[in-house]
Amino acid sequence: MACFERESPALKEILMKLYRAEKPMEVDHHLHEFGAVEYHVQASASGPPYIYLSISTPLLYQESMLSSGLPRYTLEMVKRICPDVAEIIEPPKERYQLTLRLDYWRIPHNKDGLKMIASISSIQGVILSSQLKDMLMNVNSLEVSQGMYRPIKLIYHPREPFFVIKQPEKITAVFPMRFKEATDVIIATAFFQELMDMGSSKAFAKAPHCIWSPIPPPELRGEPIEDLSTNGGFVSFDITARHVEGKRLDKTVWNLLNFYAFVKYHVKSTRGFIQRRMRMRLDALVEVLHKAGIEDEHQTGKKGRGSKGKRKLLTFSKSKLLKKRYNFIDKIKRIRYRIKIHWFSRFRKRWLSFPRFSSLKSYERLN
């Protein structure tokens, strides 16, 4: 996600190192940013106390590139950056669009000096934003009043171009939205619809009018098909003269240049929030199921232990009863063996003996 920063962190670090040095340093450093922006910082320890800063950056609008270098309005904006310290060198260094000579001995060692270093490190942002400022300031130009307008393709990032269309009394900025994942398209579409609803409310009546459409607007007819092939639709903002008055111009320019980064940041944050909530919900459900499983095992264990105890109780009672029964029989036997009746055996043999009967089938042979 490329964000259009006002200050270059790497360039600011190099300038701060030279600024805080107690004596002049020998520096010859090449710096690349975003793959297309190149800086060259050069300083001599034995020569005059100057730092030569050269920059090469792609312009938003390639047709605005003149044979002499940067557009006039851009050069005027650059001259306003620390005029007592920075000076434009003509012609610029070979292969670079702009070369500045910085007299770092004139930079005070206080808070004002730190602000100057920050302003110098934002040179690339000044070059790019100056072109868009120049377009937005010419809202009521003769070309627009005569109806001779056409879309102007502005490229800050190779994969994120947008169009500026000059119309009577307004300038329309159109952003073709492209996303890699289908989930990002869904989140972004919901965000664009909410943005339109909020923009049409009374609370945001002074904000630029926002329109989202899944198809290209009529103003982009005739543009190359690769610029109109999107999966997230087209977002348009109507910029009027009220939005470019005074300090509003700078704010409007930076909001347009960072619109892609803002949308991608919103999509990324929303996706992370949804994933976080889903993970928390999943953990809660797993915890509930885990507790339910523990309770089921506890209940099952109780039932198993109860039935086993019952079986043990019944088995113990039965064995005990049998044991008592056998003990009773043994007692009876012992009692029987202990009691003796005289002449009882003779009496049993004589009176309690059963008579023997002959078989019914037996017969005697007759002579």
What distance separates the N and C termini? Answer: 140 Å
| Overall spatial form | extended
Biggest sheet descriptor: 5 strands, antiparallel
The share of residues in extended strands comes to 15-25%
| CATH class division of the domain at 140-270 | Alpha Beta
Q: Please, how many helices?
A: 10
How are strands sequenced across the largest beta sheet?
Answer: 1-2-3-5-4
Radius of gyration: 50 Å
CATH topology type of the domain at 140-270 = Yope Regulator, Chain: A
**Uncertain stretches of 5 or more adjacent residues:** 307-316
Mean pLDDT, as a whole number? 78
In total, the number of strands is 10
Helix content: 40-55%
Q: Which series of helices and strands comes N to C?
A: HEEEHEEHHHEEEHEHEHHH
Search tags:
367 residues, alpha+beta, Yope Regulator, Chain: A, five-stranded antiparallel sheet, 10 helices, extended, Arp2/3 complex 34 kDa subunit, ARPC2, actin-binding, ARPC2/4, cytoskeleton
Written description of the protein model:
It comes from Cinchona calisaya. Functions as actin-binding component of the Arp2/3 complex which is involved in regulation of actin polymerization and together with an activating nucleation-promoting factor (NPF) mediates the formation of branched actin networks. Belongs to the ARPC2 family. InterPro entries: ARPC2, ARPC2/4. The chain is built from 10 helices and 10 strands. With 367 residues, it is of the alpha+beta class. The chain has a 5-stranded antiparallel beta sheet with strand order 1-2-3-5-4, with helices on one face. A 5-stranded antiparallel beta sheet has the order 6-7-8-10-9. The longest helix is centred in the C-terminal third of the chain and has 80 residues, at 259-338. It starts with 8 loop residues before the first helix and ends in a 16-residue tail after the last helix. Residues 307-316 have low confidence and may be disordered.
